[in-house]
Amino acid sequence: MAAPGPAGAAASPSPQPPQLPSPFAELVKSPSGLEKVVLRGSRNCCVEVYLYGGQVTSWKNDNGEELLFLSSKAIFKPPKAIRGGIPICFPQFGTHGNLEQHGFARNRFWTIDNDPPPLPANPAIKAYVDLILRPSEEDLKIWPHSFEFRLRVALGPSGDLSLTSRIRNTNTDGRPFSYTFAYHTYFSVSDISEVRVEGLETMDYLDNLKAKERFTEQGDAIVFESEIDKVYLAAPSKIAIIDHEKKKTFVVTKEGLPDSVVWNPWDKKAKAMQDFGDAEYKNMLCVEPASVEKPITLKPGEEWKGRLALSAVPSSYCSGQLDPLKVLQG
Ligand SMILES: O=P(O)(O)OC[C@H]1O[C@H](O)[C@H](O)[C@@H](O)[C@@H]1O
Hints:
The protein is mainly beta. The chain has helices at residues 137-142, 266-272, 324-329, and strands spanning 25-29, 35-40, 46-50, 55-60, 88-89, 111-112, 127-133, 147-155, 161-169, 177-183, 186-188, 195-198, 204-207, 213-216, 222-223, 228-232, 238-243, 248-255, 259-264, 284-298, 303-314. The chain has one domain (25-329): Beta-galactosidase, Chain A, domain 5 (Distorted Sandwich), CATH 2.70.98. The protein has 3 helices and 21 strands. It has a 9-stranded antiparallel sheet. Strands 5, 10, 11, 13, 14, 16, 19 and 20 form an 8-stranded antiparallel sheet that branches. A 4-stranded antiparallel sheet has the order 1-2-3-4, with no helix packed on it. Mean pLDDT is 92; it is low at 1-9 and 317-322. Pfam families: Aldose_epim. One of its GO terms (cellular component) is cytoplasm.
């Protein structure tokens, strides 16, 4: 029998935080009161994932340098989605449907999934976490489909960040469902006018600033001089974001996601956003691997997988040395 506690006080064990399978992952409470999982890699390499939205908000390299953009005005309070990092847009991207903009996954509480169905083993990855989202009764009223959305966030040994989404139709009434999807990735850049994106030139795109009309990109790499909001269709699986000033290239690799959205609100829209600083558009760029043009359809029991992998490598593009094809083809 357990020893009695002090007179008048029942001995109640202090609640233990849930154990995570990876010893390099820790669940902590942020100053806002929201819980986040911190993944630690070598040296100062680190990733933070909020259970709210299943949203990565920070990815730091070996030197502790932040690679993702998070607005200084981000609001960490439901139902507002967190402005920055990698919001998950599901089951709807943007206004491509009747749901709220970008769907509801980004403003729901996800839970830790300590026993997910296995993914292909990668013994080199030690820091990871698995999250799961299932619809609540309220969600079923606005999107009447039962699903399991499993998200693995992993920090690789060389500081690469990967997100793997598995979405399963668990409807028991035989009905398929369709959705659109995006990893709405906000990259931190030194100065948007010094950035170019390679891999999307000559692609077709839908221009959200022109009533989703379809155009073909002309000429060279994409550079930025004004607001942009385009959905590039059937984009290549590798896209490079070259930051001349920081001499850094982000390599974005996507699987299962044909499209890629490119967004920067520029000055006017920045001012209109409550959770975004007036001048912050200069220091961010969204490149969002997505499936927008053709919705994904799953029959009951079927599962879809979509993966995003990010790495940040030094670039010498400013000296004209870098062969863009080398970046894109490895
Ligand atoms: O303000 P949010 O709902 O987070 O959306 C931010 C942006 O997301 C995407 O990039 C869309 O293409 C844009 O049209 C939208 O403005």
